[in-house]
User: Fold DUF3849 domain-containing protein from Brotocaccenecus cirricatena.
Amino acid sequence: MNETYLYPYSAQEARIRNQLHMWRESYRANVACRNAIEETIRQNFDGMNLKKDCLEPVLAEYGYKRTEWVLATTLQELSWDGRFSRANKQWAARRYIPQDERHNAEITVRSHPAILDGFVDLYRKAYQKLGLFGPEHCVGDRAEQDYIGKVLVLSPDTLKESCWSQENQLWYAHDGFGCSPHAIGRSVRCTCLGDGEMTRWNRDEFVGVLDEKFLPDWAKESLSQFQQEEAAESPSMNNQSM
Assistant:
């Protein structure tokens, strides 16, 4: 699998950050991914139907993140084209792609839009089957929420694809400046509900607070344990302060 880092900024921003080498490597991988998408569509479209397994070799080589980046860029570049479904256009619009007119155009997939639309459908279905949490599983306004004592959803973009699972996405927030929506500090001290690891993430790396109705049973058990431990520690901490 191509392990090249998916660079999230434009060439102009990369120049400012002195990271042009990272941008170039990512750009080359994006172009290669575009070519792979075009080739698999060419090989697997029989004139009427697109084979359902045509997505697999692209994902195997370039992964979900880069494939999504190229597809979302393409649909944003071709947003005027009525041959793409409204649902797929809305899906692509939710993906942040930095403005970079020349280079975005160069990674735009050149397959027939109606056929490519079907390929996007296949990608979205494959991603949905992974069962990952996203903004649609969260409640409240992330920009205004206090995170202390909440179950947070870590963005899949933050995790390596090899670590993609609900167990690695759910974190219980303890404290940190990042728990406050308007603090200058962004660090959140939290514990993974999946394996109990405690670490710090940046507030911006979470997609939001999980809606309780989506909390899995295994996570409820972990959450209850953490809350009991915190409750037990609180009296002793208060006594020490007295």
User: Anything to note?
Assistant: The longest strand covers residues 170-175. The beta strands are 138-139, 151-154, 170-175, 187-192, 198-202, 206-210. The chain is about 45% helix and 10% strand.
